[in-house]
Amino acid sequence: MSLPDAIHRANSHSPFLRGLIRRETALLDTLTTDGPEAALTTALARLDPAHPLPSVRHARAGVALTVALADLAGLWPLETVTAALTRFADSALDAAITAAFAERDSSPAGLAALALGKMGSHELNYSSDIDLIFIHDPDTLPRRPTEEPGEAAVRLVRRIAAILSERTADGYALRVDLRLRPDPDSTPASLALNAALHYYQSQALAWERLAFIRARAAAGDTALGRAFLTDIEPFVWRRTLDFSAIADIRDVSHRIRDHYSEGQKPGPGYDLKRGRGGIREIEFFAQIHQLIFGGRDDSLRAPATLDALPALAAAGRITSDDATTLADAYRRLRTLEHRLQMLDDAQTHSIPRLAAARAAVAGLAGAPHWRALESALLPLTRTVSRAYDRLVAEDGDRKPRLPHDSDALDRWLAKARLADPPLVRSLLAGWRAGRPRALRAPEARRSFEILLPTLLPAVARGKQGRAGLLRLDSFIRALPSGVQFWGLLSAHPPLVTLLARLLTATPLLADALARDPGLIDTLLDPPPPLPGPAEAQAELALATRNLDGEALLDRVRRWAAERRFLLGVRLLDAAIDPLDAAATLAAIADAAVLRLADAASARFAARHGRCAGCHLVILALGRWGGQALTAQSDLDLVLLFSGDFRRESDGPAPLSATAWFNRLGQRLIADLSVATAAGRLFDIDTRLRPSGAQGLLAVSLDSFAAYQSAEAESWEHMALTRARPLGADAAAVAAAQAMIDTIVAQPRDPATLPREAMAMRREIARHKPAAGPWDLKLMRGGLVDLEFIVQTRALLRGAPIPPQLDRAIAAVAPELADAHGVLMRLLVLLRLVMPAGDGAAPSAATGLLLARALGLPGFAAVKSALTLARQQVLAAWATTFQSGETA
């Protein structure tokens, strides 16, 4: 790759770099003529402590452009790129410190800035925070006559952070993170020297030892900083490790995997830094080995990951293969991370969910398309994950347990701050006595005990703690068995955290898991890509090959339950867009209905033969037809058949086509709705068929077309705008689609149809008013109003329209696209976490989940987005019906 090519790619794919290229023409000339080192020196020369805010931002812009283009052009390897970014951070920090002291008419002394994390190891990325701990010496820190040393230090640190982080017209320079100091919520922003020494030498935690592997004195009074780090060196690098220290290190490794890694497969939304098999696991793989062996071998104390891995291999502490493969993975993951951050100068580590953004990343990377990058990611992350899996292999015998002694248990409960300790003691006594079926076996109770120190606090803290405890007890009592389930959870700690979240956030999923504990197995592997209708049908066909009768019904139910459970968990994690989840739920329904329809047809044919030229067509309506189901959706359908309704079947017990398909329809609906040993599949609603519940269950296409043309009311035609035919015979499905298109496209009276639609909406409001303030379907300006607008406009348009509501909106009501996105995303999530559907306002915790899914900063923003969506719907209603009345 060449520098001109790098400039072209930056211009084409990165709005941030494009702006810098336009503004930094002189620097670009220096880069082109004299090379990146000269350009970097020029950019750093802009730093001026006399004018700190503009100068550090101006310097940062030059550094960002220089380093990005040198990186994209392949002029600098990763190590040089990260060193250059760190060089700027050091220089900018030093300038900010000098400026802060100068504003107080003093010179820097007595205040040291310790760099940790990637700044400490000279590995900064394009959009890193800088992790700092400030130490001050009260005896040498300059201060004003009325100030205490601690007050002066805190004021200096706040000013330093503001110089670097505050947004001005020129942007920001560096985001400063001070949270790695001890107890950051209660300790001052700068630590007094002796207090810091006392803490790190006597009270510090294992993760803090890990953090200080990469610590260095970066700026300010560097002599003070170096002396402090020398004094705490025995805390970081212990020459002897007792069993307690080794257990601490092992516990750190478990917490890292449990907290950050959720098994996601590389693809949209995957976090390159924190995801399973990502950057952080490589860093911790090296650092944990360094903690264990670096106390006696100072050759293993290299702060940088790419230096530590070969050093560990040379010392025989890890294999050469691990060192080589992990270093290669680290370079490639870090390089891709840089491409993500180059797009918009954003502090992100996640692969974009939008295809256009992924294409831009690929363009920056010089790849032909995103899939070329994605295909290389999976083997990388698998390699890293396997290495880290070996490192954190379980050692269950050393895990903490809840005390059995009554006084010790009381102390544990007090420290854990659980809700209702008497209830905890009562429930715990019953569990330990093996009263629930799932805890009768000693092996089950042993595994369960391992989980309790994590599980109880996760479900029993906060205002809903008592409810969480009762849900946990109900869940345990509903489990059919426990040996395998509790054993699996004790071997996979992230699943314990997930179980707690299900119990506290989504009782619907927790109930499903209690009915079928085997669902937990679906979470052990990285989640597969969301299937479309064809993929779901192929997957189910493979899973049910050679099955019939009860075995088929059970297997279809288990398959659908597994897919819906996994989908719900991913929604809870905000790992997928709720709209994608709704489409996937519809694909699952398509596959299940078509598979059972095929099996029922085969059974009927064996006894009654087939009606030549006649084929079943299932008309999916409502949300199913529109491929936008929720976790609580019924399936609205009408059964049709092609061919001559008078034709007889050719089997030993012949039936007319009408009788054949009506009896088949009864069998199919029973197969779909009956509860078997594997549970229920779907609730089915067939009331939209001609003549409603009193009419035939299945009618011929010709009869249905005649009814729709001559007898159907406007609301029935509105329902047809979301009709989607399914079936095994392509010609019959095509004929049904053509019939729907004809009905939808027929001319309408532009005065009569809106009037009838408004009358229908009033009737709905009279018989089924909104259940509460968050009834997203029935509220004024809600989804029912939106659907009425779209369906009315679609019929007035006089042309076929897609059944998917988002595509129909694009055709007839584009101003409602955003409102639809907000309302549907909220509906999908609320049907999962608040299945009662009573329209009650969400809790604060649910509000945060909604905010994450919508990409909003908090629940208040969600409420604002909902208000705006409703206003947009009401405005469109007034335009469509020339009225502000919706009920």
Would you kindly provide a written description of the structure presented here, covering whatever features stand out?
GO terms for molecular function: [glutamate-ammonia-ligase] adenylyltransferase activity; [glutamine synthetase]-adenylyl-L-tyrosine phosphorylase activity; ATP binding. It comes from Sandaracinobacteroides saxicola. This is Bifunctional [glutamine synthetase] adenylyltransferase/[glutamine synthetase]-adenylyl-L-tyrosine phosphorylase. InterPro entries: GlnE, GlnE_rpt_dom, NT_sf, PII_UdlTrfase/GS_AdlTrfase. The chain is mainly α and 887 residues long. The protein folds into five domains: 3-201 and 215-233, Beta Polymerase, domain 2 (2-Layer Sandwich), CATH 3.30.460.10; 243-391, Nucleotidyltransferases  domain 2 (Four Helix Bundle (Hemerythrin (Met), subunit A)), CATH 1.20.120; 396-523, no CATH class; 563-745, 2-Layer Sandwich (Beta Polymerase, domain 2); 752-881, Up-down Bundle (Four Helix Bundle (Hemerythrin (Met), subunit A)). It is built from 39 helices and ten strands. The chain is globular, with a radius of gyration of 32 Å. The two termini are 64 Å apart. Residues 258-263 and 394-398 have low confidence and may be disordered.
